[in-house]
Amino acid sequence: MLSTLLILVMGYFLVAIMGIAIKIFLKPYSSSIESSGIKGAGALIGVFERILVFTFVLTDQYAAISIIFAAKSIARFSELNDRNFAEYYLLGTFTSITMALIIGIIFKLVFGDISF
């Protein structure tokens, strides 16, 4: 039980701090994007996004990942008319989801099925 908890904490910590790598990756593309909304909210949304994706992978609920993408797209619908923002949004979202998927799959391969 304790080892499972430690594995989960390690996984959730890893996907949460991946925001640093994503920020570095997106830095060259961010200069053409106007900042709107609450400062730092996008990064926090990304953390929750990766936590959810990681959880969905561990529980074999891969189809549920599409709900995250759909919800984000609905919330940002009006901003997606701006081509620069749309491309930046897609780069960030796909990078975030892909990293969480990879980490989740690696955890499943290394640690096997982790029961909650």
UniProtKB/TrEMBL annotation:
This is Uncharacterized protein. Keywords: Membrane, Transmembrane, Transmembrane helix. The keyword Transmembrane applies. It comes from the Archaea. The chain crosses the membrane at residues 6-26, 47-69, 89-111. It comes from Methanobacterium subterraneum.
